[in-house]
Amino acid sequence: MHKPFFLLLDTCICCAYAVTMWLERFQEDKHFKGVLLRENDPPVSLQRERDDFHRRYAGQRLSSAEELDELRQL
34 vs 39, which has greater pLDDT? Predict the structure, then answer.
């Protein structure tokens, strides 16, 4: 008997390359529900910065180098 399953990736382990292999290997398995990423919550200050960024640029395309740099830093 098969049960639905996810594959879990922990951000402290450098195995992101495996995600592509997992997706290819399990894409046809009807019980495979995807890949989950586990990481520690960011500090509250960073969460606020991210929320603010999303509010400021909601519905827009980022086009300037400054906007893209800000996004990368978050």
Answer: 34
Distance CA 37, CA 43 (A): 18
Q: What residues make up the domain containing 20?
A: 5-38
The residue behind tokens 């879990």 is: 8
**And the tokens for 23?**
């997706």
Residues forming a β-bridge with 8: 36
Number of domains forming the structure of the chain? 2
pTM above 0.85, yes or no: no
Task: Kindly state whether residues 30 and 53 are assigned to the same domain.
Answer: no
Buried b (16+ CB within 10 A) or exposed e, 34-48: ebeeeeeeeeeeeee
3: phi then psi, degrees, rounded to nearest 5: -120, 155
Residue 43, both tokens: 């500090």
